[in-house]
Amino acid sequence: MMKFMLSAELSRKRIVDGVCRLEKKNTYTQSEQRKNVDRGFSDCSSLMAWAYMTILRIDIGSDTPEQILSLKGVDIDQPADGHWHPDAARLKAGDLLFFRGSDPTRPFGVGHVEMYIGDGQIIGHNDNGLKGPTIKEMETFCQVRRMENKSYIKTRRFIF
């Protein structure tokens, strides 16, 4: 029996479409309910873990510390001197952007993750009181995070 493998391009489209289908449908939570993404609950990392596992059968880890360290991904972009956002020319749909949070004991101080969906846009679920996930302009989001001292760390790719 031959195992069907998706092309990287098709995999990227499927994962972006899958996450975008949930736009503004989920309630943010960090409780155990966060694992019930398909039932209307999530946080940033459970959304990404669910998408990669459900759509592509790739276990990237269940939270941002696991995801930023996962051996299934590779680093694509890190901020160069004076830069506070990724180089969009290096990104592909489905890449994950990691940001600092408020816990410096986590690897890299990571606290948030978003998915690049193309055309300078990202999607993710923030604890902002709104249904999520939401689509945002990448550079604007990175600038706001930087001003909140929760800046961009790096981008990782899990689809090859």
From TrEMBL:
Any idea where the NlpC/P60 domain is?
8-159
Q: Which domain of life is it from?
A: Bacteria
Q: Does the keyword Transit peptide apply?
A: no
Gene Ontology molecular function terms on file: cysteine-type peptidase activity
| Keyword set, alphabetical order | Hydrolase, Protease, Thiol protease
State the Gene3D superfamilies in the record: endopeptidase domain like (from Nostoc punctiforme)
The record ties this protein, via Pfam families, to: NLPC_P60
User: InterPro entries under this entry?
Assistant: NLP_P60_dom, Papain-like_cys_pep_sf, Peptidase_C40
Q: Name one GO biological process term.
A: proteolysis
Protein family per UniProt: Belongs to the peptidase C40 family.
Per its record, how is this protein called by name?
Answer: C40 family peptidase
Source species taxonomy: Bacteria, Bacillati, Bacillota, Bacilli, Candidatus Onthocola
